[in-house]
Amino acid sequence: MYITALLVGLLGGVHCLAMCGGLAGSITMGLSAEIRSRPSRMLPYQLAYNLGRILGYGVAGALFGGLGALLVQLDALQIGQRILYGFAGVMMVLLGLYLGGWWRLLEATERWGRALWRRLEPLARPLLPVRTIPRALAVGLIWAWIPCGLVYSVLVTAIATGSPIQGAGVMLAFGLGTLPNLMGIALLAGAAARIAERAWVRQVAGILVLSFGISMLWRLIPWMAWPFDL
């Protein structure tokens, strides 16, 4: 599950560039001209921002993993785990279709998350422009909660673990997978974004993530035999 989360973060990076690229770029633009003149000087700020963002994902994963543990306890243990696992597989299928541009249903989850973001976004304003590394870290922690269908789909997988520790691990692995793309857009200007905008790149990513979802659902088929014996 951790490897899948890592790969989803890496493949879903084409979506990260669209959703979070501007945020990562704003950190760069808030730095002094002297720091921006050399990528090596910008690197600590971008690393701090992304560390905060990944830690924020880990916190969310722990919370949702704890929710999954509660849901499993409310139902028969094995049945509850299978329902959550199946739901995670469906979300992966929807994510693959979303990344490939074939079906945008997952955008609805981003609309639902905007209510939460409206409460969190004002917390980031006093930290902008980013002038220090601790500020970059704090901004990353807050921006981890930006409405994003990609993040929400992996959070469902965190719920399916039924464990706060495993849920945090899933989201940390996902966050590490997104790191190359967001670091790339910050340090390589628009080159990474131009690559991600190509339809075939998004479609390849969509097909691969779609295959993860289908694989999860395929593994669920033997579990569906009554009376739900493994």
UniProtKB/TrEMBL annotation:
Urease accessory protein UreH-like transmembrane domain ranges (all copies): 4-214
Taxonomic placement: Bacteria, Pseudomonadati, Pseudomonadota, Gammaproteobacteria, Chromatiales
Bilayer-crossing residues are 48-71, 83-103, 136-160, 172-193, 199-221
| PANTHER family (alphabetical) | HEAVY METAL TRANSPORTER, HEAVY METAL TRANSPORTER-RELATED
Question: How is this protein named in the record?
Answer: Putative membrane copper tolerance protein
Keywords, in A-Z order: Membrane, Transmembrane, Transmembrane helix
Spell out the InterPro entries in the cross-references.
UreH-like_TM_dom (IPR039447)
Organism from which the protein derives: Imhoffiella purpurea
